[in-house]
Design brief:
It is a single chain. It is built from 10 helices and 19 strands. It is α/β, with parallel strands linked by helices. It has 2 domains: about 230 residues, Alpha-Beta Barrel (TIM Barrel); about 80 residues, Elongation Factor Tu (Ef-tu), domain 3, CATH 2.40.30.10. About 0% of the residues have low confidence.
């Protein structure tokens, strides 16, 4: 691969499914977040943002010098287009920095309504060559979120043959669709939930059988080996070890999938990529990811990892045993404060744990500490044996303070 000159900047772009996840992404080092409002977004199952919340989100991000990109990336039907102008103008009034768009008609309408609005062409647009990227740039798009099926070599060629002012963004972590850049008909065909309108039921994760036409009701598993197979089930993408190669290809923005994922997931994965990018920027010529950072991506609920199409045709990106997640760690709590006089962390519960268990605390900035929870107290500072009520406020003895938004986690089964 012919390398492109590294610009000195790599954006860490994190998902924000609701205000809690927005705060998590910003606290743990995202340069920008992408989120959805109540219309025109590809994650209908996520809580998403009301107009008032969107205003607050933009204000919060901008106060920290961060950016907010709003999804407008569904493929809208005729009857939805009449509300597009109001949606786009509300976004502009809220202060969003860019709209993420798939449909070419939506692009043209937004440029008419809001000539100065920055436009990012969604991965669902299916941009796989420099000619398409250049044409969208000529039509007013500032950024192309490239198709997930591209190799690093193909991305590098696109970078060399599009205007230097055009930004390139790629997904680097999270769930992958078996369909082309997320354009899928399975969900709509099988249960009338349109994946291209944010309602995907993920039938690619289901198990399937064959039935011979003259033996109705007799089902046969589809075998990959003696254990069977989930023929459409993709592994998760993870490029944490290859920040240097992404930069050499000319990528400007590293996008983390997961607007439907938990605040804990957003915190941990954002932190991992923030730390990885910072390590790379310190020494671009000698990038070597530390094991402490690499290990973080395994401390969230995830499927087996692979590197997708970045290194050519994927050889090992389907997971045939089941559609489940690997989940060795649970979020136990989020830190909200510290009583220095009493030496107590103030926390909000996320999952139950017991007095005497060992927990790990991840602080924004990447510091990780292990603490044995020998003393835990309820909101009235009475000793308790476990954090057994959902979202309860509790206190835990700690030798030092941890920043707000620090996550307390516990390893299961050790």
């Amino acid at each position: 691969m012919t390398e492109n000159k590294f610009s000195g900047q790599l954006e860490v772009l994190s998902p924000a499914g609701d205000p809690e996840r927005l705060e998590a992404a910003l606290a743990f080092g995202a340069d920008a977040v992408y989120l959805g409002a109540k219309q025109f977004g590809m994650r209908a199952a996520a809580p998403n943002f009301t107009q008032e919340q969107l205003v607050d989100a933009c204000q919060t991000a901008h106060d920290l010098g961060k950016k907010v990109y709003l999804t407008c990336n569904v493929l809208p039907r005729n009857d939805e287009l009449k509300s597009l102008e109001a949606y786009a103008k509300n976004a502009a009034e809220a202060g969003v920095d860019a709209l993420i768009v798939t449909d070419i008609g939506v692009l043209s309408m937004i440029k008419k309504f809001l000539p100065d609005m920055e436009i990012h062409m969604s991965t669902q647009t299916g941009i796989v060559n420099y000619a398409a990227a250049r044409e969208f740039y000529n039509m007013g798009a500032k950024r192309a979120v490239l198709a997930r099926e591209l190799s690093l070599e193909e991305i590098a060629e696109i970078r060399r043959k599009v205007p230097k002012e055009m930004e390139l963004e790629v997904f680097v972590h999270g769930a992958m669709c078996v369909s082309f850049s997320g354009r899928c008909l399975l969900s709509q065909y099988m249960i009338d939930r349109d994946a291209n309108r944010g309602e995907c039921a993920q039938p690619c994760r289901w198990g399937y059988h064959l039935m011979e036409e003259k033996r109705p009701g007799e089902f046969y598993p589809i075998y990959e080996d003696e254990r069977g197979t989930y023929i459409l089930n993709a592994k998760d993408l993870c490029m944490i070890d290859h920040i240097d190669k992404l930069a050499a290809a000319g990528v400007d923005s590293l996008k983390i999938e997961g607007r439907a994922k938990s605040a804990y997931y957003v915190s941990v994965i954002t932190n991992a990529y923030r730390q990885a990018v910072d390590e790379f920027v310190k020494s671009p010529e000698n990038f070597s990811l530390s094991e402490q950072i690499r290990s973080e991506v395994f401390k969230v609920s995830h499927r087996s990892y692979c590197t997708g199409f970045f290194f050519g045709h994927p050889k090992d990106c389907q997971y045939y045993e089941n559609s489940g997640y690997i989940r060795d760690w649970d979020a136990a709590a989020v830190v909200v404060g510290y009583d220095e006089e009493k030496g107590l962390l103030e926390c909000v519960q996320r999952n139950k744990f017991l007095k005497g268990e060992t927990v790990e605390i991840l602080e924004p900035g990447g510091y990780v500490a292990e603490i044995k929870a020998d003393e835990i107290f309820d909101e009235f500072l009475q000793p308790i044996e476990s954090t057994n009520r959902a979202a309860m406020k509790f206190y835990m003895k700690s030798p030092r303070a941890f920043k707000p938004h620090s996550v307390v986690r516990i390893q299961r089964g050790r």
